[in-house]
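User: I'm curious whether this sequence folds into something compact or stays loose and floppy. Could you predict its structure so I can see for myself?
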Amino acid sequence: MAHNIKKEIMKRVFLAAGMALMFAVASAQQTSNDYIVKTKGVKKTAVSGEGAVPDGQASAEEEVHDFISENFKFHSLCDWKVDEMRFMVMPEKYDMVVKTFHDSSTGKEVSSMSLRHKIMVYKGHTEGSDGHAHINFLCEDNQKMYYYEVPNGTFEDYCYGKMGVPTLAYLGDVDKAREVLKDKVMFTKAKLYRIDTEYDGDGFQEVNVSPNTEVKVVAIGVGTRSYPVKIIVEDANGNEFYQNVALSKTNCGMRDDEFIMDNAKYLFGGSFELQDAIMTVSKNYAQYLNMTVHTKFTTDMITKGDGRERTLRVPRMTAFTIEAIMPKPNSRYFTLTLKETESRRIYFKDVTFQETDNVAGDFEGKDKDYFGYLFAMGQGRARQTSQAARAAIRQGRVILAMSEDEVAMAMGEPDDITQGTNGHYNWIYKRSGGKLLVVSFNPTGKVIGTKVDRSKVTKAKKATPRKKSK
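Assistant: Here's the prediction. I'll summarize afterward.
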């Protein structure tokens, strides 16, 4: 009996040692992958330790740069192209417990660790025998087929969201970044960056770097699913450090409004600034950064989300923090990145800092895009929002019981206002495809319903001044 127990113990010891050896070999092979890059000095012997979530602040939105919008296009899952969308499996701790993929030949779940650093090529979507939608991939490394099972609903229902396919970092952004950023000279904008501490793992430690330090891009590889492009740079003293950033946000799994506060550094413009003049803010205007201003007049601004732009008519007395100022090439204009202080929603506005009066002293003759005409310093009139409305405002939606101010914050000023019966009234918004969105209010100024109306498309005109909020 004792002899059998001893044999069983020895068997388990040898099995565990064999598994450890296999994992070490697999890790070494994975690290030889061209997409896995490390800062110099990292040892092959793993060093334990994980960096904490950084608390440094950076405040640039990458989509304001022509450089980003021209080179890194967002691809919604609905628009993925077969054989053209390549990804790398980059599991995080949560993915070790919840398996992402199934083996197409057996239907069995596959360990995320066994697919770590393997390249997946999108092969379209199908419907499984149980009615669940399958998103299919070919693994370049072993030429086997795998699928991700959509949790609920059809593929069409799922693909319009930001969820995407877990664990997958988009390689299209990495390839393009290598093409346009390798060997480029840049300047740092964040305070905290990272250096690798594990050759065979993902460990890192954070290092402090002075803003506006000149650096050169020395390597670009895969970061994480949310921030898929790992940019390694080197300063004049030979020190290397890196940042993982989101560029197109394809399959990153994060909404635009999540890239604020601490996460803003994980946008390219939050950590780096190209030496090229197109990405450089003149020191004459840098004084306006992080200042609070409010609109003196109703004006149109741009919001961005889900790969689309929307123009909203923003009310007067709306307060913003100026997050970034980026010059537009070959013009006297600058694009302001503005964070609305109540909803924390991001807006963009092109302005000029050069005043050009056509009629001295007459506002009607002024350049309507002149910064001093549009904005005044300070908070302006604070507007109250309910807790229930805040999420809807960030998403640009209208919900029941919203006030006029809350609707204006979510949708902008209306294109028209029509009167109903018994004190009821409607705000009309023009939409694409010849449609109108009608938001109905009761006499107390609260939303009682919304509808899309085609019949009134010819009646919408320039908005009439809205009455003061109740």
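Summary: Residues 188 and 213 are 5 Å apart (CA to CA). The chain has nine helices and 25 strands.
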